[in-house]
Specification:
The protein contains 7 helices and 5 strands; from the N terminus they run ααααββαβαββα. The protein is an alpha+beta fold. Strand 3, helix 6 (181-198) and strand 4 (206-211) form a beta-alpha-beta unit. Helix 5 (142-155) packs across helix 6 (181-198). The chain is rod-shaped.
Length: 271
């Protein structure tokens, strides 16, 4: 080769690789979703049982159309229909809510719940000083309004019918000659009905409003006992046959009739 022939050196510059695509975005999105799910689980583990039941109830019935409901602060939660087999469950839930009331110590002895042949009977018993109503007045006081509002919030979403009773002791009513214990017991039951309907009870949920005066004494041996003066809220049973018929007639305008029966003398319990 001639010494005059030049030596040519070719240098190639390394280029960038091709585009990597969007696979990393999918992986990142999966990671973020997994982290969000983890945080939700951790939050639920540290939440109250009511919150856990409410979240579980939403996933079981996201449309909110189910008539099988439980109770929490707004009457929702793990879904169930109140029949003779599980009415005690509602009793336990209500007792939990009542325990949260700030003035429970004063009211504890004045609230009784019993499961009877008619349903769950909730008794608001008066004291000598007047616990839920002022003496001789048909209007609930602050304690009565608070408790009746709480009960309305808890019971308003249930498919069960509700009846309300008013009772007095045997002491003659002091006041208008044309107004006595019959009128007072009925007016108190109606006042309770109006207040509960303003706070969650449906208009068509009330089946009866009864005034008994002193004809059904809680303490017959002592007709003047203040606890004979009381308001009773009864959540009536839905039988299994009624519940099945209600599901079959979901689109019908007719509603099932509650089953009621005479009330035996049950054991009483406190919340």
């Amino acid at each position: 080769m001639s010494e005059s022939t030049p030596i040519i050196v070719i240098k190639k510059k390394a280029g960038h690789g091709g585009h990597h695509g969007g696979a990393w975005k999918v992986a990142y999105a999966d990671f973020v979703t997994a982290m969000m799910a983890l945080f939700i689980v951790l939050w639920l583990l540290n939440s109250s049982k009511q919150v856990q039941e409410a979240v579980g109830g939403y996933f079981k019935d996201p449309t909110g159309k189910s008539k099988k409901v439980g109770t929490d602060e707004k009457g929702s939660g793990e879904n169930f229909t109140l029949t003779k087999d599980n009415m005690s469950r509602l009793k336990e839930e209500l007792q939990k809510q009542i325990r949260k009331m700030t003035n429970l110590d004063k009211l504890n002895k004045q609230i009784e719940m019993t499961v009877t042949s008619e349903g769950l009977r909730i008794e608001l018993l008066e004291s000598a000083a007047g616990t839920f109503f002022e003496s001789g007045s048909p209007r609930p006081n602050s304690n009565g309004s608070e408790l009746l509002s709480l009960l309305a919030q808890q019971l308003g979403d249930l498919p069960n019918k509700i009846s309300i009773e008013g009772h007095t002791d045997s002491k003659p009513y002091n006041g208008n000659r044309d107004y006595g214990n019959w009128e007072l017991s009925t007016d108190r039951a109606n006042s309770a009905r109006r207040l509960m309907q303003q706070n969650g009870i449906r208009v068509d949920q009330i089946s009866q409003v009864r005034g008994y005066a002193d004809q059904r004494l809680r303490t017959p041996a002592d007709p003047m006992d203040p606890s004979n003066r009381r308001i009773s809220v009864i959540v009536q049973y839905i039988t299994k046959d009624d519940a099945a018929g209600e599901s079959a007639d979901e689109n019908s305008s007719e509603s099932p009739n509650p089953v009621t029966a005479s009330e035996p003398k049950p054991e009483r319990s406190k919340p």
